[in-house]
Amino acid sequence: MHTQTIYELSQEAERLLLLSLSHLRQLPAFSPTMLESGNEGNETSGDNIPPPHFSARGIAAQHAMLNNELRKITRLEMVLAIVGTMKAGKSTTINAIVGTEVLPNRNRPMTALPTLIRHTPGQQEPVLLFSHVAPIDTLMHTLQQRLQACDRQHLTLALEIDKDMNSLIQRIEQGEAFERHYLGAQPIFHCLKSLNDLVRLSKALEVDFPFSAYAAIEHIPVIEVEFVHLAGLENAPGQLTLLDTPGPNEAGQPHLQTMLNEQLARASAVLAVMDYTQLKSISDDEVRQAIAAVGKSVPLYALVNKFDQKDRNSDDAEQVRAMISGTLMKGSITPGKIYPVSSMWGYLANRARHELTVHGRLPDPQEQRWVQDFAEAALGRRWRTADLDDIEHIRHAADLLWEDSLFEHPMQTFIQAAYANASLYALRSASHKLLNYAQSTRAYLDFRFHGLTVAQEKLQVNITRVEEDLQQLRASQASVGDEVRHEVALAMDAANALLNQQEADILRDIGTFFRVEKVVAMSKHDTFSPVAEAEIEGEMLVLHDESQAQVVLSKIRASCEVVLLKAQENVGRELALRFEQLESTLARVFTDAMRPIEARVKEALSHAGFRARISFPAFHAALLNFNTRPLFNEAITQENLQDAQNPRSASVRKTFSRWLNQPNWGGRDYVEAKARYLIDLNTLHASLDEYVRRFCQQIRKALAAQVDVAVTAGMTTFFADFSQCLSGLQESLRESLTMRQQHESAVAALSQQLQHSISTVAWIYEDSRLLRDDIQTLFATEQT
């Protein structure tokens, strides 16, 4: 590691960040609106800055971003943001990376507040530091007053009150505040669970939780602990810190999407935890959109959790990587940065190996439930407590479970590499943020300077044109909506035609297996079987042996499932392709409709990063999960008959009757009860046909609902973004006109200030570019 070089680069990054912060503080002087509303500048709203008009909130957000990078540079800290939905296994993944349990797992959202987990060599016992606890203390006092006047019955109806929530309510009533320091796993769990229950309680009591007080990354809770996999590695000049982020709309708090976007934008890299069993769900799509939005400024990685649930019909690792990289993430992440894993297996194996190393044996499974989970995963469902006494066998089982978890590869190629190069990640993050700041600010200042050189009359004309553009935008929305609905109708007609054709093909192919000759052929058994051959009685297939009946039924079901699986693959592939084409078509419709407006304000819109896109949730293959097994479970009917026609017994009975001169001798005693097994082919065939028709109809409804939601949301977002761009442009032109109407001497002075500011930001950009290039060179050197 080039320690001296890294030190010099960090000094340069710190200089540029301080210069940018100083430069940023000067920008309100170029905006009359911001000068008039200076108090607004203290807000830390997460709204995106709409260039070229720098709002007061936008400048505050940029200030927070640069300050965050300065804090990371002074510590040479790489912040790896972990993002995922509630059920994706985010906490389990973090525990697997750390090597021990530092975050609790509950069957409800557990990250209402972001939490840092910092690798601290030598810190065997985890410690939580919560220095910025004052806003929580204020909230607790408010809730205490609200609880005194609260109807407990109403609160119980509005909130699920369990043991943890009861404990929190008692704590609030008794005035017990949160501590600033928690040592050990259990006290940390209790603190984090209480914080998240506090969010739920605040919502139920209609009290605002102080989320804005924790927007700055230095204000959120920090857990310091040594990561097991990094213990003993050479100390690198930098720190690795995980950032546990709230999932989108977690705990019914929509604003958490904004908080998530803020935290991701300030991270050095992002690790998405995806659920292998829910890859194409709407909730996972929200996470993919959030990380794709920051994909150009920070490196992206993905762990596809729950890969242990893969069966023989599921996508393998390569297929998963290709689907996520190409279809789901639209190329914003490469397949080589996607790792299918089992976080639970990785965590359990890590925990077991750590316990064996430190204590020489596993804890009592009755006292620590994770031991039971480990034993079942590593030893099988039939494990016994005595099995845990064979330490060498347990150690070997833990190693095998770790291998099966597939965690070794990302741990070596990514986590350990991130730790070794934490300082470079921190530097690269700072250089990218500096470049982004310089580019956006240069565009804003150029616009301001140009406004001072343009005649007042021309500015007024441009303001009027933008107003006309806004009116045209509103008028275009209706016509675009008609064209969009037309394109959607065409796509849905094509999809329905495809489903109709597949439905007809399925019914036709299934019908062939119920023809008499086909059924009889499947009922044939080997020549030496003593069981009578199957018979056809009307619509009934009659068999004389239960195992034979089960075999025949299994053959029919297997033949039908081959047809259904083939149709499933065809429909899934075709629908995915058709909806990708629909996305492209709708993007073209929007672009064509807005081209006249965009041509007039092209520069301003391009500075705003405006893009037209409707994004559908990727077609969910689980919609086509045919399951016909229940239809066959009760298809066999047993019928008991008295068998008086057995040829062998009948001839013997006749012989004895003749000898004894008693014609009916033995008739009652030798009548045997025989069972035969009936399969109603007509009923089974009709049930299958009805199942296929009903299933295809459900797919049609699901597709229609999915497309309707995606198109409605996409159109709303599209026109809102476009309108925001035009409104921002109009406001900037008005401000330029206001400044242009000042005395010529004031205009000249402002022009000179703008030129100086433009020169400064140009220097920032050039030096940041050189810094980025040096860091990239150093990265390449370290990886060779």
From TrEMBL:
Residues 74-415 form the Dynamin-type G domain. InterPro entries: Dynamin_N, G_DYNAMIN_dom, P-loop_NTPase. It holds the Pfam family Dynamin_N. It comes from the Bacteria. NCBIfam families: PRK09866.1. This is Clamp-binding protein CrfC. It comes from Citrobacter enshiensis. The lineage of its organism: Bacteria, Pseudomonadati, Pseudomonadota, Gammaproteobacteria, Enterobacterales. The gene is crfC.
